[in-house]
């Protein structure tokens, strides 16, 4: 694909930067972040403004346009892609390289004295605003909020904001009514002397109200805001979605419910004026809770003296610790997912030797098998289906022009997952259909050792996930190898496949401590550029452990795999495994055989069952 | 010891808080931090104001006095001690317990509306000021700097600020002239477009000028400030120390040196006015570098627009990476230290069965043996000599009233170190003179496994120390055990035994990456309250490692023990060790025998040599 021609678009944007229709004084630079107004990781097409103006489609990247320059900052995953997708109007700023200036430093170097830099206050998170504003102010410039987005006026074919029908989740899926969730939230608000809580993250709103949507691909969320008071509930949501009788009944919109659970439904766009109203009526000591990652527009509306910023909102924390019903749902979802993957691998074993299976057709087949399972809703992210060298591209997605054929000679990595009504899955397996080289097996075994070291780790209650990250790397490090991504992320329950506030990564320190009921991924890897990629990923549940002692009564935790898909023994150099590691593999495979085997039997999937039995034999 | 009676002292302080001689408007609270004006960990007697006003002698703790209350915040190490040392005027605030309010929250709960809270701006670090000021301001109060310390006027027997003679260190100890250090610093200043660098940490000044002092016990530093410009050097130092001909010659105070190395010597107290002068003459884009932990008084003097705060100063970083001469000095110091400890342990083996050795006499004996070694200057910290239950008190220091006798029945933990002119040492060994219980051996072996896991770890260049912390705990965690302190700290070279900016701890995230030449301690432990304490500590040097592969040419690192003192095999349950761990122990002991054995031989210390040979036999 040739790069997008952006000359005319940039001309129009630069005109808007001087147009008194949008701004009181001309601005000398305009920042286009890549997010939406809800800090979503995945965004809807109508929010892809950075992509529209630059042509660069990657998931992360910020554009800055001045009168003379246009530049994009993105990270190592996207250097090649960004360079291919952007025309000569754009300068690519490769983040992470020493010679690359930060956005602030670059602005200071190109701006004329006393410049104004504009940004859409709905899209820039308050913490980023603060950082950028400080840097600009200290050099005599200023950061100004431009209320109307400057790209929208000339984005003529911009699609409408999605407004998909809502799914109501019953107690059998959620384990807790939305009223009980609100009550629990209000208790936390009272503890902290908080009068109002402004919810901006889409998955938090979906979780709180036991509703799901389909406004963003792969993410079962819907565009909304909410303001929860001590005795009032305001839900800001567009469209006729509230007309659905099931939703009406669920939220008790007609019935005479208790006044503290009466949901006031307001237009999505009215959040700002309503929040202004709320803030206007605040008593001297009243506080409003909001995430420190919320938009500058909403954050700034709350007077500083009434503002209580929090890195992990109480809903984010409550959502992360799954209740018994959610855990059972996640277990069911992972068994169904394993059934689909056993079918896929059995099918691949048969078809790959014929030379007819490609990355794309394999991914399609995986989706086909998943769709056959009960309560399937969607995939949970675009399938990474990667043969040989494509496996070394960590966020690879097969396209017709890169599509390789699965063969007996190259490694195959498939990272895929689904949204079921009872849970979200995410699993990666790396397999060989012929005979792997000794080096491939060696590297695979280091990764496996790391996977087991995390999965079998016992650690005190209250340990933060980032303290476990090195366990996953130790075997690789000892041989001089490593991988340049985190080891695990939180996983939602029929919600976003990536969620906070816990995870396992060397990159964060502000993660919340792990506790029983949290669910994270365990996915170390190794990538040999231009050759192959290896990743072994299970979703695991944090569970209490019962070691010999119990120091200071703190209690201990460990992980229990929810993913139950065999790990290819052919890829292991079993001589490199300790007895403990061999036992772990055998025990894991025994569980796969018993639990998934029973379900395959029940569903009458005999070929897949044969494959499962063959792949779960003890490693001798 | 009975608690200190503080009624009269508090009365006088509360009077001062309203006395217009010191303050323009009365203050409703006064904060007494525990530090000095240089953020020193250990402080001189004249700076122990918090101890003077409260009676509490611990190394960490902040006092806050209001019109009606007096409270002290300290951490778990000191709960018991603080409770014993303070009278009923004081409330002990146990940090780390959930029910304990923070200093800010407590102030907000007790202060009348619109209160003023005072603090000595020379003692409070700028980052703490900012934090406290923000909390107070947001509740309608204010934090105000009180220029004259309010305790000094009635602290009648306050000692003078020490002014010990200086020691000049030659190239044979430092490996680099102070002029070359200044040149290197100026290069870094030029890179960052910095015009002035204000040095406030005492060890940084000592390192930069290749001088040592004895103003603070155990820390070979001297009270001073320095301001380094692109072509000027100002040293702020009191007393007649500059009259010493050796110092004069070293700093070339008389000789006509190059103008950019001319040292202008100014009175210690004149730092503020000189810095004001410097700031008054700054051009519009000129920047002044200062540590973000420097005092509020100095930080505030630099106008915000010219201020460049840094968490790790360039000197802190340069000092952490030891050069070849410093490394050789550290090696020599550790061999001498091992000689002294071999003497001690040989002597203890003979004397303990007689029942005449106490914690204090053993510590004294260790000091006596160290003093016999060449270039001995002082201990590097108060010796922790602890029998049985005293070993469970992590920062124990034997006192006549707690002094236990070493016996054949209890564990003995000794954590000690020295300042030699060529290096600083810090070593902990835990030994049994009779027959340890199976449980004591089990716990010791977990700690040993953790010690080895860190010491033998291979990790990529650029890894931060906090990522290695869990390696030290893994074996303990697996059995439900843990220890509540970090695993390692940076160690100076004939400087502070604790230094930044690197270390190995779960508590920090802002540590600087480890690099070859850095020196840290490796000291996991286990403490059974009221029973025993175990710690195994070596000082280790970061060295390049050469594993099989070299991913992305990053290179790998590992540790090499500088401490060469046998680890008691009797305490090990060798069945719990892997072959790799046994090999590590044998190889370590072989090195102790060869290197320290040769020195014991040379010094004619035959009994100690016999002990060393006996204690370093392979573990079979």
Task: Please tag this protein with its features.
homodimer, 620 residues, alpha+beta, 6-stranded mixed beta sheet, 28 strands, 33% helix
Question: How would you describe the overall organization of this protein?
Answer:
2 copies of one chain form a homodimer. The two termini of chain A are 51 Å apart. A 6-stranded mixed beta sheet of chain A has the order 4-3-2-1-5-6, sandwiched between helices. A 6-stranded mixed beta sheet of chain A has the order 12-11-10-8-13-14, sandwiched between helices. In chain A, 33% of the residues lie in helices and 19% in strands. With 620 residues, chain A is an alpha+beta fold. In chain A, strand 11, helix 9 (245-251) and strand 12 (263-266) form a beta-alpha-beta unit. In chain A, helix 13 packs across helix 14 (359-371) and helix 15 (438-455) runs antiparallel to helix 16. The first copy, chain A, has 18 helices and 28 strands. The longest helix of chain A has 28 residues, at 324-351. The A-B interface holds A 138, 304-305, 457-460, 464, 467-471, 473-474, 477-482, 506, 509, 545, 547-552, 554, 556 and B 138, 304-305, 457-460, 464, 467-471, 473-474, 477-482, 506, 509, 545, 547-552, 554, 556.
């Amino acid at each position: 694909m040739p790069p997008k021609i952006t000359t005319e678009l940039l001309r129009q944007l630069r005109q808007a930067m001087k147009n008194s229709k949008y701004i009181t004084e001309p601005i000398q630079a305009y920042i286009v972040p890549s997010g939406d107004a809800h800090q979503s990781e995945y965004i809807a097409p109508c929010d892809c403004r950075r992509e529209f103006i630059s042509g660069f489609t990657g998931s992360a990247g910020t554009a800055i346009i001045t009168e003379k320059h246009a530049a994009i900052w993105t990270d190592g995953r996207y250097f090649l892609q960004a360079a291919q997708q952007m025309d000569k109007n754009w300068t690519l700023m490769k983040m992470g390289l020493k010679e690359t200036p930060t956005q602030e430093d670059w602005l200071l170097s190109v701006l004329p004295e006393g410049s104004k830099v504009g940004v859409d206050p709905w899209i820039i998170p308050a913490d980023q605003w603060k950082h950028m504003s400080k840097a600009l102010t200290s050099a005599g410039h200023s950061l100004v909020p431009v209320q109307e987005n400057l790209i929208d006026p000339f984005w003529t074919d911009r699609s409408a904001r999605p407004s998909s029908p809502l799914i109501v989740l019953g107690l059998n899926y959620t384990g807790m009514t939305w009223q009980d969730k609100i009550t629990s939230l209000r208790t936390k608000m009272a503890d902290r002397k908080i009068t109002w809580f402004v919810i901006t993250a889409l998955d938090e709103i979906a979780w709180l109200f036991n509703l799901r949507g389909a406004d963003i691909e792969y993410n079962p969320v819907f565009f909304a805001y909410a303001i929860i008071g001590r005795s009032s509930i305001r839900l800001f949501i567009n469209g006729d979605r509230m007309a659905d009788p099931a939703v009406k009944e669920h939220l008790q919109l007609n019935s005479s419910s208790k006044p503290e659970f009466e949901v006031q439904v307001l237009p999505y766009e009215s959040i700002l004026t309503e929040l202004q109203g709320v803030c206007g009526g605040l008593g001297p000591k009243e506080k409003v809770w909001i995430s420190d990652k919320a938009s500058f527009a909403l954050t700034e509306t709350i007077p500083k003296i009434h503002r209580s910023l929090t890195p992990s909102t109480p809903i984010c924390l409550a959502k992360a610790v799954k209740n018994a019903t959610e855990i059972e749902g996640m277990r069911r979802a992972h068994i169904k997912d394993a059934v689909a993957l056993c079918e896929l691998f059995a099918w691949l074993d048969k078809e790959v030797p014929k030379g007819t299976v490609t990355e794309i057709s394999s991914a399609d087949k995986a989706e086909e098998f998943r769709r056959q399972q009960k309560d399937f809703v969607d995939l949970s992210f675009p399938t990474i289906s990667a043969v040989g060298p494509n496996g070394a591209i960590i966020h690879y997605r097969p396209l017709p022009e890169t599509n390789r054929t699965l063969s007996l000679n190259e490694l195959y990595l498939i990272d895929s997952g689904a949204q079921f009504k009872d849970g979200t899955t995410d699993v990666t397996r790396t397999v060989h259909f012929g005979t792997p080289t000794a080096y491939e097996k060696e590297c695979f075994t280091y990764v496996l050792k790391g996977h087991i070291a995390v999965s079998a780790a016992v650690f005190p209650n209250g340990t933060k996930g980032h303290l476990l990250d090195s366990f996953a790397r130790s075997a690789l490090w000892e041989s001089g190898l490593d991988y340049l991504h985190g080891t695990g992320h939180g996983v939602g329950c029929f919600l976003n496949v990536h969620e906070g506030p816990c995870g396992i990564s060397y990159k964060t320190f502000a993660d919340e401590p792990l506790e029983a009921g949290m669910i994270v991924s365990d996915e170390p890897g190794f990538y040999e550029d231009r050759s192959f990629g290896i990743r072994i990923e299970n979703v695991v549940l944090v569970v209490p452990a019962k070691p010999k002692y119990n120091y200071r009564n703190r209690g201990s935790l460990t992980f229990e795999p929810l993913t139950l898909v065999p790990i290819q023994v052919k890829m292991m150099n079993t001589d490199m495994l300790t007895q403990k590691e061999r036992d772990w593999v055998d025990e894991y495979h025994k569980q796969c055989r018993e639990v998934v085997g029973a379900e395959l039997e029940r569903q009458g999937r005999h070929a897949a069952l044969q494959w499962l039995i063959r792949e779960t034999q003890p490693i001798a």
